[in-house]
Amino acid sequence: MVDARILHTTAALREAILRLAADRPVSEITVADVTRAAGINRATFYSHAVSPGSLLADVLTPELDRIRDDDAEARRVASDRGASREELAAITRKGINAVVEHVVTHRDIYGKALPDPDDGSLHRLLVEHFTVSSALHIRELDQATRPELLDDVAAGFVAQGFVGAIEAWLAGPRRARKALVDTITASFPTWWS
Hints:
Layout: H1 4-23, H2 31-38, H3 42-48, H4 52-80, H5 85-105, H6 107-113, H7 121-140, H8 151-171, H9 177-187
Helix pairs in contact: 1-2, 1-4, 1-6, 4-5, 4-7, 5-9, 7-8
């Protein structure tokens, strides 16, 4: 059983970093800002995180992990029943839509953090997350129909493109989420499904 104080501190840190990062880039957030907002001391902060950027990454990563896990499970079930290419494409679209929904939920945070030249932690988080997700997906492709690939290079290509699309969408004029999902879906390599 987890100590109630730890749960309280974790929740306070989560709320504090999300609120602060929605107001300004993470590079402008100090440990003192987080400790003040969370009502904790520096020692307690450092027992939970290395920096405000790492704390923010720790808060957002589980949401992204759930999206990846849901996508992998949907693909496994579909594969077990011999899903068509169209069904697999629908799963891809659903996963992209879930990521876009995550970004929209945290739009103020991503909108400030991704273009921040002084702290690339959130950019790295997304690229690493999507690289791992892409590598897992590529490994599961049907060996008979997939092209010859350097799996790590293909995974990095897809991940960087995904993050680049999110950054461009956030930086541009307000456009519909559906337009972003449609564009990302259309931009995926034909061998992806």
